[in-house]
Write the structure tokens for this entry.
Amino acid sequence: MRTLIRDCNIASPGFEVKHGSILFKDKIIYSILTPGESLPDADITVQADGLTAIPGLIDIHCHGRNNCDFTDGKVEGVNTIGINKLKEGVTMMLPTTLTQSEEALEAAFDSIAHYNGKGVKMPGIHLEGPFINPSEVGAQNPAFVRMPDIKLVERLNQIYPIHKVSFAPELPGGDTFVTDLLAMGIVPSAAHSSAKYSEFFRCYAKGLRNLTHFCNQMTPLHHREIGLVGAGLLHTNVFAEMICDLMHNGANMIKLAFKVKGTDHMILITDAMRAAGMPEGEYDLGGLAVMVAAGAARLKENAALAGSVLRMNVALKNVVESTGLPLSEAVRAGALNPAHSLSYPNVGRIETGFTADVALIDDNYIVHNTFVDGEMRYSLD
Ligand SMILES: [Zn+2]
């Protein structure tokens, strides 16, 4: 099966072309054609009419969408999220769980294991908590917080593969936990933490190279104790996930992070909860009441931000507008860097031999088509 996308601008990390064409052969990008080259025959031709092709976005931190949350433990909910994430130009995501009881996590994992696979790809799970600092719970339910427990990770990993664990590195046994996760091929990431820089560094020495929702629910930068925010800025080889909704982080913080860290280790995430893609109003987040108004999801109890209603295509727009980076650079943070942080090969670029995961967007970042493994799975009209 050969699919030709005709007359698209291509914006891929380190590569830009105007009015090019892309040929998929089955699940692979077979060739990229520049203007003037004769177009090959194809089974399906998609007329892009000057839309911009970007590598499919990869959202490695997302709890839900369309009134469904992965922690609901319902297969229909997983299917709904999977199909609707395509509207954001996303081709791959890590379903992300909330700090919950082991039974609730088992149900969530089981529902993800039964995903129908018709939307975005879900290669593994991001386990956010329950190993977090009780003083930095944010919108995680404090009732289910517990200490790092590799046995729990092993049990859940039997149900569906865990690819990333977010935990507080300062908790007892945090450094051994890093070693144990890495031995299982799981990416450890610091989150919901009041770690001092020295506590971060103890885990860095064991291989910790990721920070979860950088700047949110972590020790801020102080000039005598630089905390996790300082650690992320200082160590440019540490991947930093960032919620670029202009509420969890202001435009200048986004600009600062990209300026100091460069474009190779910044990662766009949504951290979206069930209200993403839904009208504003009242929703539940892991048993906590949340009000969504003026584009922000906040706990009813104390107005703390409670996940987001951000979409990945909007995150990309916000980064381009906040930083002034060209789209072909900004898209690294939305596609290639998340893939690199998880050691996923052959995704995140529009390049010959890479997986045919591509989105077509217009100048307002509205997604017109999303292709997963070379198959058009979403069309705006
Ligand atoms: Zn969180």
Observations:
- The mean pLDDT is 97.
- The pocket of zinc ion is lined by residues 128, 138, 191-192, 213, 217 (CB under 6 Å).
- The two ends are 23 Å apart (CA to CA).
